[in-house]
Amino acid sequence: MEICPNCGAFVEDDNQGIRFQNSTYCSVKCLKERIPDAEVILENQDPIEKQATQIHEGQCPICGRLGSVDIYSSYRVMSFLFVTTFQTIPELSCWRCAVKAKIKNGLITLFIGWWGTAGIILTPIYLLRNLFGCIIPATRKPSKKLKEFVKNQIEINKINNE
Ligand SMILES: [Zn+2]
Ligand SMILES: [Zn+2]
Fold it and tell me: Across residues 101-111, what is the average pLDDT?
């Protein structure tokens, strides 16, 4: 465990913090407050990391709030006439919008998940996945999924520009 040199918050493990010049900061915001030049140094980082950080610190594409924008997943089971479909639905949004999506898909699952053989088994599992997803806090830095998303976007742009 380390302590953020800017705000004094505990950083539980290196994966959650921003490592910079032998210190671990709790967020990019704290790093920038402490070392204004850090941005320039961070810009020299890997472009995927850089873009992912910009998205993470930027506006939610759904509600426009700033920060903790990441790829969050919600889970949905739907059964019709004993045929069950189950989906993991990833979405780029802030944490609040992600919780809303989990509640919405949790409710859909609760009402129409059960009506199939597989639905009876999957519905409680998917309800719990949504529920636990609401308890897990917002990411402090871009997740692996967000970095993969950025990587794919860069690839798509390359293809479009050719
Ligand atoms: Zn801090
Ligand atoms: Zn939002």
Answer: 98
Q: Closest by alpha carbon to 99, among 67, 138, 61, 49?
A: 138
Q: Ligand 2 centroid vs 72 CA: distance in angstroms?
A: 11
Is 154:48 a contact under the CB 8 Å cutoff?
A: yes
- Ligand nearest, relative to CA of residue 101: 2
For residue 28, give the ligand nearest its CA.
1
53 CA from centroid of ligand 2 (Å): 16
Q: Model-level pTM?
A: 0.70
Per-domain residue ranges of the chain: 1-44, 52-162
Reading the block at residue 78, the tokens are 């739907």
